[in-house]
TrEMBL record:
Pfam family, one: Guanylate_cyc
Source organism of this protein record: Hydrogenophaga defluvii
Domain Guanylate cyclase: 470-602
Protein name from the UniProt record: CHASE2 domain-containing protein
Keywords: Membrane, Transmembrane, Transmembrane helix
Amino acid sequence: MRHALRQLRRLYFFAPLLAVALVCGLMLADPPLVRTLRHALWDQYQRLQPRVYQDTAVRVVDIDEASLAKIGQWPWPRYRIAQLVERLHSLEAAAVGFDVVFAEPDRTTPAAVSRDWPLPAAVREQIAALPDNDDLLARQLKSANVVLGFSLEREGPGTVPPFMPLVTPVAMGGAPQPFVHRFGSVVAPLPVLSSSAAAAGALTFVPDNDGVVRRVPLVLRVGDQLVPSLVTELLRIGQGADNYLVRMGPSSNPGIAEIRIGQVVVPTTRNGEAWVHYATERQQRLIPAWKLLAGEVTPADVQGRLVLVGSSAQGLMDLRFSPLGGVIPGVEAHAQILEQALTDSYLYRPGWAVAVEAITLVVAGLGIGLLALYAGVLWSALATAAALGATVWGGWYAFASQHLLIDSIVPSIGIFSAFLLGSMVHHFASERRQRWVRQAFSRYVSPNLVKHIVDNPDSLELGGQRLTCSFVFTDLAGFTSLMEKIDPGEAVALLNRYLDEMIHIAFAHEGTLDRIVGDAVAIMFSAPVHQPDHQKRAYDCALAMQRYATQYALDLQAKGIPFGHTRIGVHCGEVIVGNFGGSTIFDYRALGDPVNTAARLESVNKHLGTRVCLSEDVVAGVPGVLARRVGRLTLKGKTRALLVWQPLNDGLAPDEAEAAALPAYEHAYDLMAAGNPDALDAFEHLAHERPDDPLVQLHLRRLRRGESGEVIVMTDK
């Protein structure tokens, strides 16, 4: 068993290794659930420490509810948009970007409005001569640095309209197309507007599964053609740059590493997206559209700035979920990433982040797992809490001080999994070891006592309690002389086999092993667990022991080994049962006169010629007992005579023969107990019929010596 435990212990190390390996696989697979947990943690970081707002060269002309109420519902006529562009140009905005797609002609143009009117031909000619709103806007776009927005659709032929003013980036270190989000078609502004604008940029976000916009793409693709986003083009036009550069990462970390736009370098994800570190909403960056059109905006608010035109009105449905909680207008996400680009305050997930996370997982996970395997629960739990705290704190510190996005969720899952699996294996091993110790301990102490101590640890206290118990004492006759006649090793082997089965019989009857003294065994019933039928158990146990001992001795004697017979005494009574000894060692046993009486009953067998003696208290608790009276024995050192019985089914003779002879014996015994002189003749007759009956011979000798009555005073132990 111990060898098996050692072999199994060698496999325990693989438990934390398995946990760490599984979580490493989870890290590589990066399923949606893991991403959701990771993003939730980073969102919490942003809520705890949002980006500190700095008043930069970014403004948002907001088509808000107040503007809609003052100017009219959306869509506004294009001449209004042209007025807005003209005001921004006159205030010397560096560049203007529209978070709006002008994909359809203006339906408020006079020609368009008059199509359904029944007007005379001359009037129609006059109306047709009026300027078209889209043409007005197109002429205004030519005089300003305006970036028009367009949206992308997943389905489509993968081609870009030729009239769109798009700049193809310069790629360095490889082709970025395999890593960029792919779309199939473009919802473009009108050709007349597109051809008049300085540039065009995509408005499309690629939100996560929960709909939260955490990253803004700087470059996308339609088919195999790269297209810039609104942010990218606004930065380029605002700086007067001719192009932008997409730099790829090394082969060890494939994908896009950064995008350089003029003097601005934006670190990106491998897909060309920039993480947004959101600042709380600030009114400084907002210019209500109605104020701009009303001439209430000063040049200082616009001059040299990048201006985004978008809407926060709920009715226009351009709302997005934010990591800070709640919803924001889509234009604010563009504004936030522009502010980060101009203040160099990016959120960044470095290429080495996965390696650091994996090393943390492996080192801390294996360490905690091994500690959980071999240390106590308290220490391993404290170490796990410390490791989890350090991992989460490390992620938070990297975010708060360096604006780095380090995943502490997956390493924490791995550490906790290693602790959990290690603790489970430790618990399993402890239970297995406890079972082994219990089994081993049960070879020294009675199994029911071991179970009682395990189930009731409070019982391990000095002292005892009064209980009524039954006791079985056995002794082996002639073993000392046997040791002198045969090899001591052989004698010990014979004794061990004998004791092993005797104790097995006792345990089968749920007895408690009180002690083994040489070749003698003492068994107790009804302690530590109460047994209402303790007399019956003791009686049955004594008879089973005697049957086995008799057959064992006969088998050995047939082989020429003079193995002696076994004597047994059984008694019951009130005793003090408990733990005796001191603080160093306990001895669970029973103290009281019934214990000594049971030992004396075992001993008197050699004087009576019997093998088993039962006290009257034991017989009283055994219904239908097949036994006969031995006599009222006054044991040595006692004053009260005790009625003692001999069981007839003790294995020395067939039960039927014993039962048939019982009436004659009982008649003779009654005569002897009454002092009737006829008792001598009755026992003479029994002795003639049963010359080998030891009790008949005992009483016959007494009667011949002139003794009478059933009381026998024992002068020896």
